[in-house]
Queue: 3 jobs
Job 1
Amino acid sequence: MLKVPATPSRHRVAVWRELRKIGAISLGQGVWGVPDVPVFSAGIARAVTLTEQAGGQPMTLHATGRGPQDADRLGALFTAARSADWAEFLADCGKFEDELAKEIRVAKFTLAELEEEEQSLDRLRRWHRDLTARDVFVAPEAAEATRRLKDCVAACERYAERVFDALHERQP
């Protein structure tokens, strides 16, 4: 549970961003939850520090439900949040593939464009890594996301080959 002063709002926003970044789910006003696994420890510590620096009052608890249905409900809420994250990731994979297709269609085979696309791919890789680490219950979309990331890697490699062919005036 975190109580952060109402003003200035930047403190509340910083704590909220940190909790969202680690994948915490909001259980109510100022109450956030994550499964009790090590991957969340550093993020929880950062949220506590931000709360303290803002003059707020953090309180962390290790809680268990009163029955198995409570653990199931937390798992379902957490998995639903990860499913939404994966859906956003999959949409960005589609945008990445569309961007590569556009560059091929307009024959924009430059090193600068390749570097930009590789940076976008690196962002997708980091995002996938972070989502995988947070997805402790393994949302149904995780396998599709892994496959789509591999497709993005392959598409970028094909684009890179076309860039190098163009730079060296080789026929594909």
Note: Residues 2-58 form one domain.
Job 2
Amino acid sequence: MKILHVETGMHLYGGAQQVAYLLDGLARRKIDNILVCPPGAAIGQRFADSPVKVVEIPCSGDLDLGFVMRLRRSIAREHPQLVHLHSRRGADVLGGFAAHLAGVPAVLSRRVDNPEIGWWARWKYRRYARVICISEGIAAVLRREGVEPERIRVVRSVVDARAWIAPAPQAELRAVFGIPAGRLIAGVVAQLIERKGHKVLFQALARMAADERPFVICFGQGPQRRQLDADIARLGLAEDVRFAGFRDDLPRWMGALDLLVHPAYMEGLGVSLLQAAAAGVPIIATRVGGIPEAVRDGENGLLVAPGNVEALLAALRRLIGDAPLRARLSAGGRALIAREFSIDAMVEGNLAVYRELVEP
């Protein structure tokens, strides 16, 4: 079986990391893989010396109409049996057109739960032989918009638990990030964009007494950084929040956190939540999208309503003040990942979809 994969993201963020897990697993199963990505993309560098053939094609986004013909030519050269489109950045609609012009069936992975206009969704998703949703929450959105259920499959995102079980000592975390001794440490692992809900967390922190607040490290980068800096200064949180940027050594630090907070307004599943669970970090997150599939309320974390400052504040106080609860949620997270979120299960799930189309 020969599959051509398209991932147009430049960084090895959550979605691209899932593609990397999939390509590794497919290669171990002797599947012939071609990876199409932009020049200089991190995932292309990741597979530069591997059985996966890397083809670099420029793609500047959803309006880069030239990408259709560039990708079509690559498909014609490589003769895959199937095209798997992984990224939204120019790869979904434009990639679907390219596969159609080349006469090759296309599969699309959908990783976000944002709604689309019904007529557009019905037209768009007919371009794909299958749509693989990374959570039941995303699949439910598509069904509500009128996408045919027989076109939809659910294969959850996963995490390589081995990378998250040996963190640095917390004393090292405190030294590197300048965190005072004695304070609990909360992390946020998310792009600095509005829908991740950083502002809700900062408003909750501002309502806490100075001696009860956790110290918060925000891992990630994004266009809201300047605005969030201003919010922190206005709320008097300059000594309580640290922005750490994008870190490729995140596995060293995740397990040294006392808790992870993810106050998102929308989320397909939340790979950072799976990473935290694998590291044994208790989680506070919102009850939106696919998050309840990654965070089970009372099992590995606490769920609150999105945008509800009071509910988030109550959850923070509860978790901060209850060490036995944190320990119970920590153990529950590791058990959940081992039980339901293995890489092999994800690879086999995608492979089953391929076989529906290639080996009917």
Note: The chain has two domains: 2-158+342-358, 161-340.
Job 3
Amino acid sequence: MAYEVTKPDEQWRAELDPQEYAVLRQAATERPWTGELLDEKRLGTYRCRACGAVLFRAETKFDSHCGWPSFYAPTADDAVELIEDRSLGMVRTEVRCARCGSHLGHVFDDAPQTPTGDRYCMNSVSLSFELVDAPAPDDPTGGR
């Protein structure tokens, strides 16, 4: 697939720290229960750490008890790319950023408690979190 954002490998290495590069560009996995976004509960947007594309919203995040941030749906049908992954002797579905092709994690259909039944199990290091601005306490419009 041709991606909107493409960079030579040397540029990705220069822009990402070693763990980000290993996960985003080499499909590594961060250790469970270690990601900085695992317990993030504030309203906001989750973006691809490599290219900044909007991928998930806080409203779709849920506690799946798997050790990685989990979401039940991406922001749009074309925000992520799903690819069959036969590594590690099993069949899984890899999730990549549709804008730059970076590895984000995997999706599983084992979350019946969610509206979609899906669990997008993402590496924290593959995402950046952008807090949604809360309305000022004296704003009568509630920020609208």
Note: Residues 18-26 form the longest helix (9 residues).
